[in-house]
Amino acid sequence: MSRRSMNGMEWTAMVLAGAERLSANENRINALNVFPVPDGDTGTNMNLTMTAGVAELNHKPSDEVGRAAEVLSKGLLMGARGNSGVILSQLFRGFSRAVAGEREMNVPLFATALQQGVDTAYKAVVKPVEGTILTVAREAARQAAVSARRTADLAEFMKEVLAKASETLDRTPDMLPVLKQVGVVDSGGQGLVCIYEGFLSYITGVPATETPAAGAAYAAPAPRPVQAVPAMPARNASAQAKLETESIDFPYDMEFFIHRPAASGPFAEKSFRQALERDGDSIILIEDGDVVKVHVHSRRPGDVLNFALAHGELTHLHILNMREQHRDLLRPAEAAPSQPAPAAVKPAEGAEALGLEAASGIPAADYTLAGVTASPESEPNPDVYEMAEYGVVAVSVGDGNAELFRSLGVDVVISGGQSMNPSTEDLLGAIHSLSAQTVIVLPNNPNILLAAKQAAELADRPVTVLQTRTLPQGMAAMLAFREDEPEAANVERMTKAYERVLTGSVTQAVRDTQMDGLDIRAGQYIGILDKTIVTTAVTAEDAGRQLLERMLASGGEIVTILTGEDADDGQAERIAAWLGDRYPDAEVEVHEGGQPLYPFLFAVEP
Question: In 375-400, which positions are buried (b, 16+ CB within 10 angstroms) versus exposed (e)?
Answer without folding.
Answer: beeeebeeeebebbbbbbbbbbbbbb
